[in-house]
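Subject: for your reference before the review

Hello V.,

The reviewers asked for a structural picture of the protein, and I figured it would be easier to keep everything in one thread rather than splitting it across files. Below is the amino acid sequence we used in the manuscript, unchanged from the supplementary table.
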Amino acid sequence: MKTLLTLIFIATCGFAGEPPCCRAPLPASPPTDKSLYLLDSKWTSDVGKIVQLGVLRGRPQIVTLFFTHCEYACPITVNELKTIESKLPPEVLAKVDFLLVSLDPNRDTIEALAAFREKRQLTRERWTLLRGSEDDVRELAALLGVNYAQDARGQFAHTNLVTLLHADGEIAFQHLGLKQDPTPLLAAIGKAAAGARR
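And here is what came back from the structure prediction:
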């Protein structure tokens, strides 16, 4: 029953359109050797589509690793990202997207991610939520510089890090910690958006 309700939500909720991971790919030259888009790992979005990270090329991505059962840091981080979203000028906001990747593939099913999107009011227009295998999550976390470990309660201690990828998937800027001044990140997003394709 829960699965059916979630599928109804996906089909009928107010988040019209496709999330960034489901858009038609932009034409692009091969990624550089520092691009995260070289990874051949496959991920599943909260709308059920299986993708590789390379589908996000062409627009800067504001990325963080999270898990939906988090009791403290992740809700704060997501709220901070929503605040950043609200502060970006329209011409910048039109060129950037937000990417949340789960650290907890065992519990963060498609349905759990979809419910998290609904609860946090994350629009499909700009937000992608992904889950992957434990090995692929570990690889991506290492490349981003995120350390994490799960405790006996199922909670994850993890680096509170927001990463800005420029349009070709290279790390352009990293914002460490909770409740930090967002000004440097906002400036970096503006700079990255200036080089985005759309």
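For the response letter, the relevant points are probably these. The radius of gyration is 16 Å. The chain is about 30% helix and 20% strand.

Happy to draft the paragraph if you're swamped.

O.
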